[in-house]
Amino acid sequence: MRTIFNSCVPRDEVLSGELRDEMFAAKLKNVIDGKSDPIYQDPDIFFRNTFATQGLITLVHEVCGRLSGSKPDSNAFIRLETSFGGGKTHNLIALYHLAKGHSPSGVEGLVQPNLLPDNENSWAVAGIVGNDMDPANSVIHGDITVRTIWGEIAWQIGGKTAYELIRSSDEQMVAPGTQILDMICGDKPTLIMLDELARHLRQGLAVTTANGRSNLADQTVSFLMALIDFAVSKPNVSVVLTLADSKDAFSTETEDIHQVFIESQRVSARQEFVLTPTGESEISKIVTHRLFKSIDSASAAEVASEYSSMFTDLERKGIDLPAKAQRAEYRSEIIDNYPFHPELLLTLNRKTSTIPNFQKTRGALRLLARTVRDLWSRKPENTWLIHLHDVNLAVPHIKEDLTSRLNKSVFKSVIDSDIVSTLTGSKAHSTLIDESLWLGSGKPAYAYRIATSVLINSLTIDASSGIEQEELLLTTLTPGDDPEHIRRTLGVMMAEERIEAAMACWYLHFNGQKYRFKTEPSLEMMVQQELSGIGRTISKNAVDERIRSIWQSRHMQTVYRPEEAADLPDDSGKPKLAIIHYDSASTTSDSNEVSDLVSKLFTYSGASQSYRTYKNNVLFLVADSSKITRMVDVMRRHLALERLNLI
User: Considering the chain, what is the average pLDDT of its residues?
Assistant: First the structure.
């Protein structure tokens, strides 16, 4: 079975140098102005990096079919709706390049050549991004000052000449009618794209029109209604508008735009065409296409077979895994997601993407590009798939992507404490556990695997936060791993098993169903802090008191901590139980040797060191040397719990 380093070739820009945010933050205005990064500005590079989703194919066929005249019954008004980072802006940039006469070479099946203009007869294009409009200060184009969306559309379609037709409406900030729009567009095929208008509407509430009777937000809503009616009436005009879902920060304004659609439908009796740019099942294809030059399909099938065999074998041994691991469809998922583990993309898509700042596909691309670059720089052994635990939280940019960028900075201390520490001279608890249990014997860093997987599943604050043990096994296991190692590591991380003091995680919680990292300390952290104030001398004294309280003189005469022959009476009275102090002598369960102290006490008696007469009347109790440290640690923890009033 080949590793991903032998079967996959990342794109050059993923591997070379520091990754730039421009690779992931597409801006329509920058492309229109000719100022964007080449990966968006250069049509050949752009389409080479574009995976043709079903949504993009449908969008292009609708728009190009209408503007080319080949499909006049195509929808005049199309709305792209999904969450931020879901592919809307990418689709608008694709339309812009096509409208300008650029052939989408390298994107098989995207659009037929007869539906496209040529470079000399490109279509008119206007692309408006609500975030880039400035209602208060206007937009300056040389000696032209544009105040409104309709003014900007006119300027982009026909420059100063077209703007003069609409100047009065723009200066007064009053929505124009369809007649002016007809004069601006004329008979030339025209594509009008409107991106992120909800924020612009909110800004427009603070701008009063010239006559003082309205505001720019209301007039923008009126303009949208007129624009939709105009597009429906013109066979060579297409309007594409993007809209985030109603859960974003501008939900009220988004609802206002929805109302425009409802009203326009009543007037025109024509339904809007709603598209989702990226389907959930397509995200893996987008990510792999964008990040890799080539992926060996034979290796994908071989790896999927190995993982499926592992899941079957574990199920046969009685190891609980999610039911989907046994289904044939899951093997296909491994192939489709290769080289990424299905649970990695599933977690990013269904959990992490619900955090607004993550921005869905864009956020996944940014995070995974950095993960791929890190993996190829290290090339760890036996990397058959890219798992959740391969997201290296020791890399500053990756750590920032999952904390500060998502407004989750509070998790930085969780990472430093329990997963991987960036603090000089300090080791995270997972590191300590792995060094103690696994790394010395050549086994994987199971504690780090577990902690990273749990953390990424913990970033949301809803009911989906956290991960069950069955899912954790599915996420972390690779062929050749023993699931008992995962379970034992979890026990140590949760302080259910103690190999040394102060190793358990401070922020890891378990609610009986799911493991989850929280920013609030667990009980274990409070105990560990209390332990820091309890020395071994205090603990030993408490152990000594405990031994005395357990072994009191009743049927036998207890002699605690005899050091000299005279300390142990020699008579025919009650049998003597000599409790040897663990610091003085100890033994092991398989040892036949008798310590010098026990031998001396058994042989001699009295201050004169005469031979003991009643040897058969003495029983010695000696500590197991392998359990002494554990005994003192348990007492130390017991004292800490007492101080916290927990026992």
Answer: 88
